[in-house]
Amino acid sequence: MAIEKLIKTNEEWKKILTPAQYHILREGGTEAAGTCAFTIKLEGVFHCIACDNPLFISGTKFESGTGWPSFYEPYSPDSVIFKEDNRGFVKATEVICGRCEGHLGHVFNDGPPPTYKRFCINGLVLKFVKGEKRPST
Q: Is the pLDDT of residue 88 over 80?
């Protein structure tokens, strides 16, 4: 099921996001490690702070030791988009919100089973909705 895109101008984004959120989501920035690590152990869903797109289920969150919230799979295949990222010294795969196309973080192949993926996500761009569940398919 395709997600309806949310498109705004940079000026519109600047009005609804904090400067730090704007820097991460719209400029591809990164928060400092350990500054926004969620310690939530409750059932719920992590959404994009900019567009409310569901991104990750709390049950897929794990402690990676990296200083950023880490998950082993997205909420749904359409929740995120993958893009090759050659901006740094190391080739990486960027994780982008499937609705507003904001930068969320990166995905690596060193996570736990069952996917062996580590979605390393900036906590400042996540909003936790306690008690929310993924609908049954």
A: no
